Amino acid sequence: MTSAVPPPRTEAASESRAQRSSRRSIAAALLLGAVGAALALLASRQDWAHGTASVAGGELPLTAKGSDVTGVPAALAIVGLAALVAVFAVRRAGRFLVSLLLTLSGGGIVAAALLGADDSDALDEKAATASGDAAATIGDLSHTAWPYAAAAAGVLILLAGLLALTYGRSWPAMSGRYERDGSPSPRKARRAPDPERPEELWKALDRGEDPTRET
Question: Around Cβ 34, how many Cβ atoms within 10 Å?
């Protein structure tokens, strides 16, 4: 006795799982990359260190923002965001290289942020400018948590790059209809002339044909 139940469609099910996995990886990479870039740019504008400089009138409080300490996180955030968008505009080897650039951008942000977390050079320069003494240094130095927020942003961009490296080959690319391949555009088929139109009747008379004769 044969069963009326059709066999399971393993190929279709496998393809469906692959499509769902591809969509999830795209959504995760876009979310991680966008949030990471926004957080890195935000952290670069915040205070990373505080201190005081000795001047003639007493103690002068000074503050160093992330952009004063290092411009690397903000610059690499922009590079990473551009690379994340470019992933969908290229294919094959180009996509791999762009994904690698995205990954390296995240790693560079992490390294720069951690190196700047305990940095005092920016405040020392401000202290020297405020006091007029090139050898002046900052006192009562303290640091905020924003460098570590920038490092976390770099981790997010790094994860987006790893997703692109792992799953990027299955991601769709921009529509080919916007790309020019140099091939000539197909010509529209010419419509057959209407023999009943007046201009066609005159053309037939010029050729010595009888337009009233049925073919």
Answer: 17
C-alpha dihedral over 147, 151, 152, 154, to 10 degrees? 140
The answer on pLDDT for 35 being more than 60 is yes
Average pLDDT, the chain: 80
Q: How many angstroms separate the CA atoms of 209 and 201, rounded?
A: 9
CB 88 within 8 A of CB 172: yes
Dihedral sign, CA of 192, 193, 194, 196? negative
* pLDDT for 178 beyond 50: no
DSSP 54-106: EETTEEEEEEEEHHHH-SHHHHHHHHHHHHHHHGGG--HHHHHHHHHHHHHHH
With CA atoms as reference, report the closest residue to 37 among 97, 84, 69, 71: 84
3-state secondary structure of 32: helix
